[in-house]
Amino acid sequence: LVYARSQELVIITHFSNEEKKDYEINNFPQNGKWIDWLSNEEYQIDNNTLKANLKPFDGKILVLQK
Description:
Layout: E1 2-4, E2 9-13, E3 20-25, E4 32-36, E5 42-45, E6 50-54, E7 59-64
Antiparallel strand pairs: 1-2, 2-7, 3-6, 4-5, 4-7
Organism: Adineta steineri
Protein name: Alpha-amylase
InterPro entries: Glyco_hydro_b
């Protein structure tokens, strides 16, 4: 489940007990550098697509860095 609160904040929740490797989320609000507020992990978004590994029952709060 992905919830875009604005162009600068995205919440991702994974409600499965299976790990997802290189999972792609399309139609991301903006390209650029995003930081997971919970883990400080960095993601570079290109072509409005996020590619991430999701652990079972994982959650991320991504904030766009300007």
